[in-house]
Amino acid sequence: MKIDYSLSEISAFRSIRDNQTLDSSSRRIRFVSNYSIQYLEWALAGHLSFDLRAHFFIDESYFDDFFTYTPDPSNLSDILVITLSLDLLKSSPFLEGSSDPSCIHDYIVSRLNFFSSFAFQHVYFVLPELDSEPVSIFTSSFDWNFVFRPKLYHYSIKCGIVPIVIDDIFINGSKPMTNSFLRTSSIAIDPFYVGSVALRISMEVLNRILPITKLIAVDFDNTLWQGTIAEDGVENIKLPDNYFRFQHFLLEAVRKGIVLIGVTKNYPSVVNNVFDIRTDFPLSTSSFYKIYSGWDSKYSYIFNCLGELNLTNSGIIFLDDSSLEREEMNIYSSEIEAPVLDFSCDIVQQLLFNSCVRLTSSTAEDENRNKFYLENSKRNLLVDRHLTKSEINNKLQLCLHSFVVSDPSDITRAIQLINKTNQFNVSTSRITKEQFDNFSAQGHVFLAYRLSDSVGDYGIIAIVQIQPCPFSIISFVMSCRAMGRKVESAIFFDLQSRFHPDYFKLIYIESPKNKILPDIFAELQFNLDGNMFTADAALFARNECLFSMNLSQDLVP
């Protein structure tokens, strides 16, 4: 997606950048670069100022930050964005004019390692440009483009740094960057492209700041297709290319674990067979968790579905071409996102570049999520809501299995669960793969808890990080899908039986999402003193804490 700005348009964003306000809700962004970054700062400030879902403050940046910037650990920005010009990089005295791609690669890696050693919440790295033959920067453009640049991309991910690729922005443009341009310009990125680059950075930042998308509720007429079933008939509604790509995008989202529901003001008899008749549609009836049709408010359908799936309003997106329906949704819930889209243009591009749909890296847990939700509807039919928790767990034959995280796929899931869990994340902890490995090397134990019952498998629903000697709980996170089953009580029973501590202590760092935890821990007989939950571990030595759950354990090495 290309946003073309003139210099005057980018300069118009300067007043936004210069009049930023910093408060407790602001997330501070700092650029480090080897060129003057002011136009990119202004463009990013312009993009982010129009997005009301989060508040950002862009710290002042200076020329040559990439070479000279040393973060102050006591005053870190929340977000660090690294962006480089290769031509200016290789001419730096730090590299003595080297044109060897391996030398450039190694120097960049050393600086990435330096920056990642500080506790920034997020670090983003705009991948340096491709080297083109006519204006080659290196002794071997092939080695840079196909060996060392891809290595930089994967190394960034390994370090927990988010790589941002902007190749398509320049490839699609009509004014390619050249060495002569870079040498004569103080901004390194042509103003013609700087808006698009800022938009890409904005997208990646918001994708990791805002909640991961859990459910998409989508209207049908003039949203999934062009036309209305009642007036045009199923056979005559149209599927132009942008709608076809949109349906295919939704199908891929379902495959990655996002729940899809249909909400349409139509008679059920009108929509029940639409996907059977229109076999040219990428979506089918089975793509949807449920299709709600009728004349009630669409929010009531979504609200009922969220209750059934045990989901909050966070990470829910409502897509509808009608401004009236969107405004009604905003009245009912400010958390549910109802973006304004132009359905005559590329719908998918609008969703992605405005960070409306936010996906995680796909794991087996993600792919099985929709299966879990279907199974959950069966659970709701099986149990009487008047039964006690123990009676429900006994009827469902609930089983909790605890084991040490060691398998690579389990490590990926553990890191994902820690990083995306908000409601039941006691210390608001986040972790990278490198930090996971470092903690493990120091003797920390990551215990995972897998939940299953007679209906199906919930998957890994909790991770507890333990420092064994002396015993200390470093982090405790649990998926909302397990809440309501008293699993947290069984987890503390397991910890008590494994490690035999005298007491449990958990540091509580309050966030807007985990404010429910004091109530939950009060039920478990924990006391909250300042920012510390404490409880006598002997309280959890009783079998009653299992609430009729069958607990199985793997040994801690």
Ordered list of secondary-structure elements with their pairings:
Blueprint: H1 7-12, H2 14-18, E1 26-33, H3 38-49, E2 55-58, H4 65-68, E3 79-83, H5 86-90, H6 101-116, E4 122-126, H7 141-158, E5 162-164, H8 167-171, H9 179-184, H10 191-209, E6 215-218, H11 229-232, H12 241-255, E7 259-264, H13 268-271, H14 274-277, E8 290-293, H15 298-309, E9 316-319, H16 323-332, H17 347-353, H18 364-367, H19 369-382, H20 389-396, E10 399-404, H21 408-420, H22 433-441, E11 445-452, E12 457-467, E13 472-478, H23 487-499, E14 503-507, H24 517-523, E15 527-529, E16 532-536, E17 550-553
Parallel strand pairs: 1-2, 1-3, 3-4, 4-5, 6-7, 6-9, 7-8, 10-17
Antiparallel strand pairs: 10-11, 11-12, 12-13, 14-16, 15-16
Describe this structure in words.
It is built from 24 helices and 17 strands. The chain is of the alpha/beta class. The radius of gyration is 26 Å and the shape is globular. The strands form 4 sheets. A 5-stranded parallel β-sheet has the order 2-1-3-4-5. It starts with 6 loop residues before the first helix and ends with a strand. Helix content is about 40%, strand content about 15%. α3 (about 40-50) links the parallel β1 (about 25-35) and β2.
Brief rundown of the structure:
Helix content is 39%, strand content 17%. The chain is an alpha/beta fold.
Primary descriptors:
39% helix; 557 residues; single chain; alpha/beta
Record the strand order, biggest sheet: 2-1-3-4-5
Number of strands: 17
Oligomeric state of the chains?
single chain
Describe the largest sheet. Answer: 5 strands, parallel
The radius of gyration is 26 Å
Task: Estimate the strand proportion.
Answer: 15-25%
Shape: globular
| Low-confidence region ranges | 173-186
